Amino acid sequence: MNLPPTVTERAFDRLAEIGAANQGQALRVAVEGGGCSGFQYEIALDSPKDDDLVLEGKGQKVIVDAISLPFLENAVIDFTQELIGARFVIENPNATSSCGCGTSFSM
């Protein structure tokens, strides 16, 4: 079954920490061609557009454009804090392989 991506509590908590909504911003998760595996994630703060899917929680928003949405079906958008640093990560069941950097994948 094709479901939109879900966002973890940790990801919404991090957006609240950085005050994204206070600045009228949302976390944009997009998929673009490129990277070492064919596709790469583009994750940035941005303003919602009319055709975006908006995922809301804890007063925060995560947005996905219509073109990226099929690539992110059933994916989980999370925030992780590790020794190498803190970052938003995508757990994508559609990706057949990914590279070590975690931002590039293939389908």
What does this structure look like?
With 107 residues, the chain is mainly beta. It has a single domain (6-102), classed as Hypothetical Protein Aq_1857, Chain: A (Sandwich). Helix content is 8%, strand content 44%. It has one helix and nine strands, in the order βαββββββββ. The protein has a six-stranded mixed beta sheet, with helices on one face. A three-stranded mixed beta sheet has the order 1-6-7. A hairpin with a 2-residue loop joins strand 6 (76-82) and strand 7 (85-91). The chain is globular, with a radius of gyration of 13 Å. The model has no long low-confidence stretch (mean pLDDT 90).
How is the secondary structure organized here?
Blueprint: E1 6-7, H1 9-17, E2 26-33, E3 39-46, E4 53-57, E5 60-64, E6 76-82, E7 85-91, E8 97-98, E9 104-106
Parallel strand pairs: 1-6, 2-5
Antiparallel strand pairs: 2-3, 3-9, 4-5, 6-7, 8-9
Short account of what is shown:
Helices cover 8% and strands 44% of the residues. The chain has one helix and nine strands, in the order βαββββββββ. It is globular.
Number of extended strands: 9
Q: Judging by the overall fold, what is the CATH architecture? A: Sandwich
Overall geometric form = globular
What would CATH call the class?
A: Mainly Beta
State the separation between the terminal residues, measured CA to CA: 17 Å
| CATH topology annotation | Hypothetical Protein Aq_1857, Chain: A
Relative strand content: 35-45%
Output the helix-strand order. EHEEEEEEEE
Strand order across the biggest sheet?
Answer: 4-5-2-3-9-8
> So how many helices?
1
Helix content estimate:
under 10%
- Rg for CA atoms: 13 Å
Give the class from helix and strand content and strand pairing: mainly beta
Main sheet attributes: strand count, strand direction, barrel closure: 6 strands, mixed
Average pLDDT level:
90
The CATH fourth-level homologous superfamily: HesB-like domain
Low-pLDDT stretches? none
The tally of structural domains comes to 1
